[in-house]
Design goal:
It comes from Parvularcula marina. Pfam families: Smr (PF01713). This is Smr domain-containing protein. The protein is 26% helix and 11% strand. It is of the alpha+beta class. It has a domain of 102 residues: Ribosomal Protein S8, Chain: A, domain 1 (2-Layer Sandwich). Strands 1-2-4-3 form a 4-stranded mixed beta sheet. The radius of gyration is 49 Å and the shape is rod-shaped.
Length: 198
């Protein structure tokens, strides 16, 4: 049954085909161009996608500031006041003594390490290390030759600040004149904790 109301609207495929046909036809002079079918709403033009906003940059994780370990004072500046008074008066009971005179730096370091280790194992509290006063010149020296005057005194103060000696020493002080003065040092050893029984 034919539809009322005139012609049916063209389907999309038919419109495309008709458009191709009309594109190839030249209209006659004075001919009326067909009116576009206004029944269909024009499709909205595709909206331009807005530019994607750049995500804000992620915060850079800065490394946490680490508090540097507290530097311990040199061993030869440590000790309690009573200890200092005993040293000043020369009233220090010496458990053992080590003389480094005439040794090379290498020999002196090895001898000192063993001496402090054994003194600590024996439970000694105070030992005397004789380095000699001397005078350190500016000439170069060989650690395997006999140390020049004064170098062992300087090196001794460096050695006691390093492991394993530092772990066994509580303090170091220049000795009283009666025990050598500036040419020797009292080495106060840490008290060893008794081994725990199983």
């Amino acid at each position: 049954m034919p539809r009322r109301g005139g012609k049916r609207p063209l389907r999309p495929g038919e419109k495309a085909l008709w458009q191709k046909v009309t594109d190839t036809v030249t209209p006659r002079p004075g001919a009326i161009l067909p009116i576009t079918d206004l029944s269909e709403e024009p499709k909205p033009a595709p909206s331009m996608s807005p530019r994607k906003r750049r995500a804000p940059p992620l915060p850079i994780a800065l490394p946490k500031k680490t508090t540097p370990p507290e530097e311990l004072p040199p061993a030869y500046e440590a000790g309690d006041p009573r200890q200092a008074r005993h040293v000043a008066r020369g009233r220090v009971e010496i458990d053992a003594e080590l003389d480094l005179h005439g040794l090379t730096q290498e020999q002196a370091r090895t001898r000192l390490d063993h001496f402090i280790e054994f003194a600590s194992l024996r439970g000694n509290r105070v030992v005397l290390v004789i380095t000699g006063k001397g005078h350190l010149g500016e000439s170069r020296y060989d650690p395997f030759e006999e140390a020049p005057r004064g170098i062992l005194r300087q090196r001794f103060l460096e050695w006691v600040e390093r492991t394993p000696l530092r772990d066994r020493i509580s303090s170091v002080r220049p000795s009283h004149q009666r025990h050598g003065g500036r040419g020797a040092f009292y080495v106060f050893l840490k008290t060893r904790k008794p081994a725990r029984r199983l």
